[in-house]
Amino acid sequence: MLASGDADLWNIIGVSFRVSFTALLLVAPVALLASFVLAYARFPGRRPIVSTIHTLQAIPAVCVGLLVYLMLTRNGPLGDLRLLFTQTAMVIGQVVLGFPLLLALSHSALQAADRRAWETARTLGAPPWRAMLTVMHEVRFGLLAAMIATLARIVAEVGASLMLGGNIEHVTRNIPTAIALETSKGEYAQGIALGLVLFALALALNFALNMLHGKGEMR
Description:
The chain has ten helices and no strands. It is mostly helical.
């Protein structure tokens, strides 16, 4: 089915990748900046915020889907936007789901960084944003791993996508919801093909990360 260019199958793959990569691109800059602030700034309430973020990273996808659904439903505060059962609603759900995970993992990576990189950059006259980029470059592999882990979670989640997208054929049906539908009908061929796509994506991303890590060590 994959090799023959099955139109329905590749449409499902396209929807899944488009939604998940869009969500990651939206959440990454904000999460990385917030994680740096939490790791290097000192302000009242920082520790409770960090604890809350680390707790939220384990929130079930179906709970996120329910929360966003209630916001977007016709009687909800954002109901007039008519976003429910669209790819935009799925992106919003995945952003909400991925943000605390990426923030928590990035925060852990940045806390493990040598603070002397920040201090040296500031001593040499680098502006705060340049010093921040210097620190992030030092832990770039940890940050990349955090983004891969976040993408892996949002691209494979079922609950939020099903509630917010409605599993509409050629519109919001993505890989996880299609696998659930085909399996429930006892038709496993498409489910297996889509599962192989997710496996190939995870393998490719981790292979790329290992290649980059290896090049970084050789330098």
